[in-house]
Amino acid sequence: MSNEVLFESDETKTKLLEELDSYRETGKWRQALKLLDRVDKDEALPALDSYMYERAIAACARMGKVEVLPGLLNNMVVDHLRPTSATIDFIIQAYLAKEHWGLIVQLASEATSMGVELSPAAFHAIMEACGQVKDADSTIKIMKQLSKAGAQLTVDHYSAAIRAAGMAQRPDTAMALFVQMEEHDKLQDDGEAFSQLIRCQVLNGDLEQALQSFATATQRGLSLDEPIYTCAIDALVSNDKHWQATRLFEQMLESGEKRPTVFCLGRAMLAYTGANRSQHAWACWNKIVETKELNPAPTKYNKLLQGLTHAKDTQLAVEVFDYIQKLFEPGQIHQGAYTTAIRAHGRLGNTQRAVDLFDEYVESCKGSDRVSRFVGIYLALFNALSRDDKRDPVLNTRDAKRAWKIMSANVPVVLPPAYASLAGVFASTGDMETLEDLIEHAEQSWGATAEVMHRQEFDEDGDQLAAVAVFDGDNVELGSENDVLLFNGVISGLCKARDDRTANIEAYLELMLSRGLPITDSIVRATTDACVRFENWDLMQKLMTMVDVDALKNAEVCVGDTVSKLLEAGNWSLGRDWLMFSHRHGFRPPVRRKRELLREMSENKSKEWRIAYTLANETLSFRRLVQNNVDSIADACDVCMNADRIDLVVKLFDAVAGHPSLRYFRNHERQMQESQDASQSLESDVVPVVVPLRMYKHSILALLRQPKSEVPDVDDSWRMIKAERICRQMLQVHGKALDGEALSMAISIKATAGDYDDVGALYESMRALGLQPNSYAQNAAIIAFSRQRRTDQVLAICNELKSTLDENGNVRMVESNVARSLLLSLALAHEDDALRDAVQNLPGCNIETALDVLVETNRTTDSVEFFNDDVSSDAFESLFHELCKSGNPVLGATLLLKYARLHGLTEVHPNRVIRVTNALAGEGNLVEAEKLLQMYLDGSKGVSLKQMPAYFQQHTIEMLLFIYGEFGHFDAMRTLFEKELMAFPLKVAHYEAAMEYCAQSRDELAGAVASLKLFEVLRTHGFIQPSGYTYLLTLQSCLRLERLESVNASAVKSTGQIILGDVQEHGFQKTVADELTKQVASAFKQVQIKNEKVIRRIKKEGESADTSIMSPEELARIALFCHRHGMPITVELADKLLQLHQHLPAMIANELAFVKRSLQEGLGVVAAPGSRVNSIPTKRVTRKRTDTKTKRVPSGTKTKRVPSAFAQPYGGRNPRSKSYQAAVRAASDARWGAVLEPITTEQE
């Protein structure tokens, strides 16, 4: 029987699906929805499933009924059904037809979270939608959800996602997606994702990251298309990064690109021009001419020529323009191209050619409106005429007047630069009469320009313009009452409009101010009504600056009406500003519904104390107060307490207690008690007015919380006396019902006075009477017992708190101040078990407070041990901050590692790692800092450095660079510069610092080899422009390895010659020369300072010689080496080096003297008499021993130190290693790339 029922159910379901299919194919969406509704309500029919919904949604989507699709999806969620992939396709197709991009993103986020599989078409549509709405966060969220659901993601998926991130202007998200593709999904890019990533970085201005991405792609051997190179080169040129653009263009050619486009060649030409490499720029131009582009576009060549406007190679601009004239008719050439050509011919002195080009441009504009209103072409001609020294001055004057006539007829407003340029032409020709006329005309023109009125448009449909035009005419009489009335009527009518016209109101208000018309009371009211109605709060803020209070007839009532409307609308901040506005002008506006407003503020826990205090003062101004008025003032006290304005609470209490209404009630009650007998029972006709209990409590707490005066002579005891008086009055008024509260207040007052014996006695009395203390009393008792070292009483209070239950039978929440005092007392008593038990069993006694009190009691080690996974991130931050300040950063590092162990390294904020590593480095714990950063460097803890933010990557690299440099780990240092896909760009300063460490190494030979390898990385990886300092450090390394000069006269260049050739090839001679001069000056200054110390402290031991990166001898040898090989030194540099002759060998000093004389006599680079280039060996500069016969001192004997006055000046260098041959072999075995030749050994 059950099988028959199942068969019938399947058959019915099949029929339902067929019927829905027919509706889907015919587009009968209403019938499909009705069928779904019938199936849902009829229990005899099969239950709804995803396939039924799929067909119904397809029918709706086919007919474009997108408004019903969210409801159907919601019904599927209610029925616990997951949409099919086809369902998502149908919905996305419908949304695409309507271009509802936001709905597509929302649908994709929900569908992927449910694990729905997306088709390729749907995925690409979703990524397009994310890009259209610029929602990069949803892009990465969808990708993570797809990966989590087990979808088979490919490089194509990630390329689309990276493109969407680029459309959203989020290159950081694009980089995160790329890292996720490689790190998480283990996908290897074939160049497509790299292209999208680079395009995203370039279009969003992140050019440094784009260059690093190019470098990584090249190192991986990936081939990128020519358009992506062209896009990056164009952006680099536009941002004046010409040298990087040339390097990128050369890299493109090296990657195999044989036929770059004309546009690419043009941008490369501009890059070479900007980098002062004219020969390469001409090569690019010749290549463009050889290409003979079919159907050339004028815009492309016009842009190319305009890029040469400020180029130094003026002849190239002329050549480009001549070629453009061959390709296009004059009417096709842009006026900017003519401007550049005229300016170029003017610089070259071809004035007639410049005039001819101007005439050609004017001739091409005849019969059209093409004559330029751009003043640049006229200025170019004027400048060319002013430079002329060959033509007849009469011709120049004639041409200048003719151009001026054309400019005056076409340029609407002639600015001062045009007058200045034309005046230069007349002055150069000597036509003084014309010059005087021009000056007079210019002054008149500038005066007329200053009177031009700039109008502002407010509405696109023209309504606003028409409204303003009503008053556009002759100036009106200031202060005209008719105009004020007119504007009053207009603004009043606008405020009553059905749609928002506040923008028009603002325009008329500004027009009134411009005409000097006053803004009246009725205009303020009307403007307020409109702004409150349409919530234009910005105009209400501006209205305060527009209103003149003196011009209002009744300022108090007018501003009071404004404040009342703003407060009734719930805009408390703006209402407060208007109240302060009235107070600044010396009046207090009446506010409506004060009692209701104060009640609402009290119930909402508002902190708008300015409003509450103002309304309370206005209430106190009444002649007689009733109970409702006093309750309203109590509400104001609540607001002031919320805002921590305890001084105002005391003021309000004193004002209420001293009000005549309350004094009359108290006097009347006293008289009745004195006049009546004990047996009589008289009734008073006076309604009693009682200060609420909460107002008493607020005033007492305010007095107790007020800070003590910092002035030593001021007595603060009046506060305690006053608190005791108010407490006594509270007991008299509210009497018997609050004996427990009264005792709690008394305990608080005694605790504030420091009478801990009385506090303990009062608390024990409350316990004996069975009264429930409040949190203030409990807190005071715990502090008192702790100060008395009565730990048993503290533990007793802890047990009482555990036994106090709420209405649900759970342990009641402990107040924060009580919890802190309890935990602090237990920590001071070293009751660690009780402390742990309180944290676990007492709500309110949390682990965060326990850690805080442990730190406060200087138990930092115990706080780290007490730390567990229940601690919040904020408490971890606080504890970590305290440990880093404690002077023991190892504890901070330990806490950080423990937190990472509990929650994972991904939960550790990068700033915390930066702080603790800085502290470790500051205390000299470099090993610990290295181990901490190494977790990110090797990715051993599940987080790699590439996944971290850019600033953290920079800190890690720079900190490890410092640590490796201090330890002399040069190989590890070099690997830092070979990291790929870093989110921050390496600078040349990083290489300088690393090479300085190498130069200062105790093993100078190994350091020199490491320095050369770093220089190789600098010149063969990336696009970092080397500095002069890096070149000097490299030459210093060659000097120390005896590879500065060639060993013999062979044709093989030395390493130093190759380095110097690289300097000359890239045009860095001036940079190197300036740096060499700077280093020599620094060395000379150090020698002078050292000599002064020697004079002052002669014969005093303990002075070590000042060390420098480069010694005078090394600087002298490098300078002479550069002088011999194409970089002559100056007379000043040779003279400066000769001033250091005491620190130079005689041979070096003699050659420097000869070089100086040769330069002074104008002989240039001349070899010294009787010497060859190699006559001065470039041997290593080693420390000279002061006594060659010094005997070896036994290890147990203390060596006598040489006085600093007689120590060798630059002999304090670190001792060198004896592994000279090993260092040379290591250098010769390394590959030096295309820039550097291999170092040969001495045997070779």
TrEMBL record:
Pfam family, one: PPR
Keyword Transmembrane: no
Keyword annotations of the record: Repeat
Chain spans, region Disordered: 1180-1220
UniProt repeat feature PPR, residue ranges: 225-259
InterPro entries: PPR_rpt, TPR-like_helical_dom_sf
Protein name, entry field: Pentacotripeptide-repeat region of PRORP domain-containing protein
Species in which this protein is naturally found: Peronospora effusa
Lineage: Eukaryota, Sar, Stramenopiles, Oomycota, Peronosporomycetes
